[in-house]
Amino acid sequence: MILILPIGLLAQSDSSAYRIQDVDAHFLMHYYSQDGVHSAVQGGEGPEDLTDVQGKIIINILTDSVKSFNMKLGVNHYTSASTDQIDRVMSSASRKDSRAQIDLSYGRSFKKADLTFYGSASIESDYFSAMAGFSIFKEIQKGNAELGFTNKSYFDNWVIILPVELRGASLPGFETSKRNSSNNSLTYWQAVNKKLSFSIDLDLIYQYGLLSTPFHRVYFENDSLSVERLPDSRFRYPVTFKLSYYPNNVISVQMLYRFYNDDFKISSHTAEIALPVMLSNRFSIEPFYRFYSQSASAYFQAYGEHSINSNYQTSDYDLSEFKAHKLGASLNYSPVWRFFEKKDQTFATIQTLSFRYAYYSREDGLFYNVASAGVRFKL
Predict the structure, then answer these.
(1) Does the pTM of the predicted model rise above 0.85?
(2) How distant is the alpha carbon of residue 169 from its chain centre?
(3) For FRET with 351, which of 57, 61, 262, 369 sits at 20 to 30 Å CA-CA?
(4) pLDDT digits (tens, 9 = 90+) for 105-135
(5) b/e 31-67 (16+ beta carbons within 10 angstroms → b)
C-alpha cells in the first residue's frame, strides 16, 4: 500500500496541477543484539541481553523543484531478558514487545531559505509518543554558509508499570504518566573552501514530567527495595562540532566532537571519525570509530549503595561513569539496475545496495552488535 500512492500519482497527466517529479524509496532491515550484567530492572545487577529486529521504509517524494514530502514507516520487535524480570516470571508478557512508528515531513524551498515541518507518532504496549516540529535554514555569505534553527516537541505518555513485588504499595511521586520534551537546535554551516567545511550545533533540550522508569528497581544500604526516582525536569546542553575534508575524489574525512552537559550532573565527550572511500565508481566503503566518555549522574549508585534518606536514586548504568568504544563500517554498491523499461521509460531503478555493521563495548561490560542492510529505489 505504501508504494501504491506514489505510483498512482506518477501516472497523472502532464496537465495535473500536482505532479510528482521524483520518488525515492529506501527499504531497511536492522538487527540488534546486546548483552551485559547491569540490568536496571533488577537494581543494577542481572542480565541485559536483548535482541531487536526492525523493518523500515523511507519514501521521499519531490513534487517539483521547491517542494518535497518524506514518510518513514517502521516496525520493530524485541525480546529482553531484563524487562522479563519486571514480573520475575520467565517468558512473561514483559519479555517481548513490538513498536510501530511513522515519521512525516514536508519541505518547501524559498529564495535563499528552506522551511520544513515535522510530525511523528510511535506506539508500543505501554507507551505512546507524538512529535511536532519545524526547521528553517537560510543561506548567507552568497551561499557559502547557512544558518538554521530546528524545534521538535515530543509528547509522551507511559503506562506506569511497577515491579511485581511493589504493586499495590503506596509509592508517591508518580502523579503523572506524561513526559514532554522541547528540543531546540541552532546550526551554523560554513564552506571554508572547495575541500573544507564545518558546522556547529548549539542545542538546548528541556524535559519535564515522568523522567524516571517506574519498573527500574533500586536497593538501599539497608536492603530495602524501592523504584527509580528522578527529578521531574531536566535541562540538557549539547554542543557539536563537525568537520568535513575532501582532499580528492577518492577519500574524504568526516570528524565530529560533541560536548554534553545537563543538570543531572552528567557531562560527556564524544569524538568520532569516518573515512568514506570510493573503491570504484560503483563501490564505496566507510569505516568509522567513535569514542565516548561520561561522568556519573549525581543520582546514580550501584546495587545496595543508595542512602535511605536520598530524594532521588537510580541504578541505571546508562547514568553511571563509563567509557565506550564503537567501530564498524558501511559498504555501498550502486548498480543502477533498471526494471520494467518500455519505450524509453523506466518504472524503477535500484540505485544503492548498502550494508552496515557496528560493534559497541562499554567498560561496565555492556556490548552490542548491530547490522543493517538496505536497498534504495528511484521510481
Answers:
(1) yes
(2) 35
(3) 369
(4) 999 998 889 999 999 999 998 889 999 999 9
(5) ebebebebbbbbbbebbbbbebebebebbbbbbeeee
